[in-house]
Amino acid sequence: MTSTPSHDRNDQLMARARQVIPGGVNSPVRAFRAVGGTPRFVQRAQGPYFWDANGQRYIDYIGSWGPMILGHGHPAVLEAVQKAVQDGFSFGAPTEREIELAEEILALMPSMDMVRLVSSGTEAGMSAIRLARGATGRSKIIKFEGCYHGHADALLVKAGSGLATFGNPTSAGVPPEVVQHTLVLEYNHLAQLEEAFALHGQDIACLIIEPIAGNMNFVRARTDFVRRCRELCTQHGALLIYDEVMTGFRTALGGVQSLHAQAIDGFAPDLTVMGKVIGGGMPLAAFGGRRAVMEQLAPLGPVYQAGTLSGNPVATACGLATLREIRQPGFFENLSAKTRTLTQGLTAAAKEAGAPFCADSEGGMFGFFLLPTLPQNYAEVMRTDNARFNQLFHGLLARGIYTAPALYEAGFVSAAHTDEDIAITLEAARAVFQQLGQNS
Ligand code: KE4
């Protein structure tokens, strides 16, 4: 039976997209498969809003999954990009602006002496792992269940049957031998961490972690856990890699590592992976760290890494203009306060309706859970009632509020979101929680 054609332009576009693009999208999470329904095809965006193919306006709490910290179309960023394109799109040759962006990043990230610009967080994470393996001469890596570091083969892995066993692929096309060196541990699990280093310490090239796991929605690494990651890496000659693709320049000007350095004397990761905000919405990411490690990279050292569009002149203009805005005095204080108003208001709305709910935020990044208390690891996050999460998502969407279409994703507030936008969001949330309460 042929379904009657929808008059909804999003439906029409999705039907057309599915004919030519797998799943109709160029990145899986955009397909709304976790929450159901039709993705909103964005026609244009400005400030904290975007308009979909039907001309419907949404308050955007995704912001391209983090990059749009200033909101869409910030005038200073727009001007920088428009000027940059006049001078050329791409050269495959060095430019002064790559030096300026590198200097800007290093000024904000004291753990880093050098940085290499690439085009995606996946590329940055993959390269950092290869660099750690090359610099240490070791093969094994530790990651944590629920953390995502891009789709490089060695990182598409889930925990093995037991701790001592190595990972199993989470994706078809990844041969088991490619992940045989990847140990997957439970986030925040001290005993597993100690055992992994006791068993394999001399073979571990690096430990990579999201210091706030935005790919489990929003889960903080405990300070005692982070301290032990640092100590064990140092003790066994492994490199500590902070994946701050999502948290970098989003949670604080210096990322989560700047917060950990305040809590732990002398704390610093050996390598940091960055992305999203540093490109301001253009394809740009980076990885950096101590000079002795970074100088192992080609053309200086034996670890090969390259990219046609690395340090692209338009992307660097976009990123540089973005960083220059966020380093303005008071930027993060204001953004943090606005984000907290949102999460505290959501918590109050849920409480009024008697719905289990908790939330957390750092800077302009937030997460919420339909759970009574904040989860500490992936298994706890996944105790969430999926159906109720989806009802919440669609209830907000129907009211013009665009939040993460998956319960394991984080949310983002931009400097462009006004107090009125937050108030409208909380009003919508109160209505949805009341509705959920009646349905329960
Ligand atoms: P990209 O290759 O997508 O630029 O970055 C990979 C990556 C690496 N590290 C962290 C901590 C990340 O969050 C990401 C990508 N984040 C997802 C959102 N969870 C991007 C959205 C998508 O996959 O479409």
Descriptive notes:
This protein folds into two domains: 9-61 and 329-439, Aspartate Aminotransferase, domain 1, CATH 3.90.1150; 75-326, Type I PLP-dependent aspartate aminotransferase-like (Major domain) (Aspartate Aminotransferase, domain 2, 3-Layer(aba) Sandwich), CATH 3.40.640. The chain is 38% helix and 16% strand. It is built from 13 helices and 18 strands. The strands form five sheets. It has a seven-stranded mixed sheet, with helices on both faces. The structure holds ligand KE4. The site of ligand KE4 has 19 residues, from α4.
Portion of residues within helices: 25-40%
**What is the rounded Rg?**
22 Å
The molecules bound to the chains, other than polymers, are: ligand KE4
The CATH topology of the largest domain corresponds to: Aspartate Aminotransferase, domain 2
CATH superfamily of the largest domain: Type I PLP-dependent aspartate aminotransferase-like (Major domain)
Helix vs. strand class? alpha/beta
Q: Which residues sit in consecutive blocks of at least 5 with pLDDT less than 50? A: none
What share of the residues does DSSP label as strand, in percent?
Answer: 15-25%
Instruction: Give the tally of β-strands.
Output: 18
Shape, please? globular
Query: How many separate domains make up the residues?
Result: 2
Mean pLDDT: 95
Number of helices: 13
Which strand order does the major sheet show? Answer: 4-14-13-12-9-5-8
Write down the CATH class of the largest domain.
Alpha Beta
Distance between the first and last residues' Cα: 34 Å
- Main beta sheet strand tally, sense and closure: 7 strands, mixed
What is the correct CATH architecture of the largest domain? 3-Layer(aba) Sandwich
